[in-house]
Fold:
Amino acid sequence: MSSEQVVNGGSEDTDERSQKKSAKHDCGAADLEKVTDYAEEKEISTQDFSGAISLIGDQRNKQAAEKIAREKELLKVLIKKEDVDLIVREMEISRIKAERTLREHHGNVVKALIALTN
Structure:
């Protein structure tokens, strides 16, 4: 066997191996194309994005305004100091929570106590 045959024989084996590898790779690529065959997604325009952000901001502002209006309404409710002391003593909660619960129930101690026990 001459040195040319050894070199050529060696390169033929290498060529065959690379062809087998590329064939395997091509089959995998064809399978991958079948799996990933889908319609491309639309790009989100900056106008849509800005519109969505402003909508979320508007909703938050509206919720904040409603919360402030609710707090102002609750502050208008008259409550008795004795009622607050009773709730704090009996339920062992903070004065702030007792006042808030009493205001939410329009100064009615019984309803406030029932709400706190439930």
Observations:
- The helical segments are 3-35, 46-75, 81-91, 95-104, 109-117.
- The chain has a mean pLDDT of 78.
